[in-house]
Amino acid sequence: MSDKEIGNGEGLEIDINTLIRENAQAVADYELADSPQIGNQDRQDRQALRRVSGLSTELQDVSDAEYRQLRLEKVVLVGVWTEGTSKDADNSLKELAALAETAGSQVMEALIQRRDKPDAATFIGSGKVAEVRQAVVATGADTVVCDGELSPAQLRTLEQKVKVKVIDRTALILDIFAQHAKSREGKAQVELAQMSYMLPRLRGWGESLSRQAGGIGGRGPGETKIETDRRRINDKMAKLRREIKDMKTSRDTKRNERRRKNIPSVAIAGYTNAGKSSLLNRLTGSDVLVENALFATLDPTVRKTQSDDGRIYTFTDTVGFVRHLPHQLVEAFKSTLEEVSQSDLIVHVVDGAHPDPFEQIRAVRGVINEIGGGEIMEIIAINKADIAAPEVLMELLRKESNAYAISARTGYGVQALIKAIESHLPKPKVEIQAVIPFGRGDLVSLIHEQGEIISEEYLPEGTKIHAMVGGALARKIELLEVNS
After folding, report:
1. Is-contact 191 185, C-beta < 8 A?
2. First to last CA, the chain
3. Is 184 helix (H, G, I), strand (E, B) or coil?
4. pLDDT(416) > 70
5. pTM of the predicted model, to two decimals?
6. Nearest CA to 152 among 57, 252, 46, 282?
7. DSSP per residue, 71-97
8. DSSP at 123
9. Tens of pLDDT, residues 110-158
10. Residue 242 and residue 407: Cα distance in Å, rounded?
11. Of the four, 15, 238, 254, 353, which is 20 to 30 A from 74 by CA?
């Protein structure tokens, strides 16, 4: 069976036994070869810097979005099951555990409660609060992590009840982003998101709320510490927004230059840890950091590649998505996420080995729609086909109309995916027929890189080309013919 048959884009029948045999052979071939060392420097850098104070919520740490690693904390996870099946609730708590471990924590215990809606005061019911307190004492945990976004009042009340620090899912994701951000733009975006989250929650963090004395002899109250902190955060947020706006200009300039040259852009999007960076490395021969961790890659990476007919286009690896992605992150990372919303084609990478890949697809499409990319052509790349359950692959291929089963690790099915990507790239719209003098080989090269060749013939006076090209290149060729 050819690689094309693993995707349903061609409408071909899928032979599940052949699929299993080819997967097994691909894995065997991969294990016999030397495994490339990709992103070693980034991985060493990530382990070299350590943060020793834990997930602090003091103001100085809120504004410190530098690259760091948490000390190991012992945590108890708490979830509220309000809808869906018990399997959905278990998967949500498993994802929270993976997030906690990525942040540098050790999960001691996980508790879940079935409720119609979270408790307005403590997120979970009073009986479950007592149970969480018992688990904290028994395990020696120093943090409780809740699977949801808690209000300031819920955080404060729950901390008073369980006697240890309480954080929610949003704070956990923000801290992971702060650890993994590398570029100046990424750090600024994470810092802005952290401050947006922390601003309405200042009252829950710290006890120094007394007023400063005002005037000679203390006439009348001055600002309270919370007012001072709030003003400082607002000033810092305004400064960060200006910096991000300036950095966005540089990104927009580069994107507009690619558009001017009619270079198509393909965005690689998907759930976190689905294998987007691995696929980028496989498609372009790059050495982007690959790690079995959530949100291992935050900063977008653009790599140039070439189609079989010589046409140049780019792949962009973007930040991974997750269920209930904090709106502060979506807002702060708006300039980065524009790489998806303004692309010509989206390759949506799905983890075929995940317990619920359909929920991942739904979550990713929700974010793509939120950032304005819902109308862009989408190709589904079902990654990890070498370890995914065959029945899950079959169901995904049946339900998704333009899906391809691949393995970025072994290379299985990647050629079929590449052919699908190149067939869906936007086509140049201007038809030209011209004889280009041999002295203008630069124009012939541009036609090959940016256009679609229909026919090419070498004549004594030059190269006769019939092709489809972009408007700017067509004008260059027209001026050449007028001047010659």
Report:
1. no
2. 53
3. helix
4. yes
5. 0.69
6. 57
7. PPEEEEEEEEE-SS-HHHHHHHHHHHH
8. B
9. 999 999 899 999 999 989 999 999 999 999 999 999 998 898 889 989 9
10. 41
11. 353
